[in-house]
Fold this protein.
Amino acid sequence: MVGLLFFTILDGPSVLNDYIAIRGIVIFIWVLLMTLLSVPYIIAGAGLFRLRPWARPLGMILSTFGLLNVPLGTALALYGLWVLMSPEADAIFSPRFDR
């Protein structure tokens, strides 16, 4: 969402190119990378919201990668792993759960 806002409303890195050209390129690459890396999280969130069976393992894998984002990402990843590995989540994502 921040990447979309940056590219549409703020006219991307061209705002910063007037000052230092290298800074604009670096910010452009950083925003593009962060936007691309957020796509799996959005897909996993949509799948978890719809209780898809493939979303739980994907959420666990992404939460494991999120442990590297100290400090807030670590706390959110630990909470995500705790919720996705709970017995309640196991019951909800089982094939016998009535949706």
About this structure: The chain has a mean pLDDT of 83. Residues 53-99 form one domain. DSSP finds six helices and no strands in the chain.
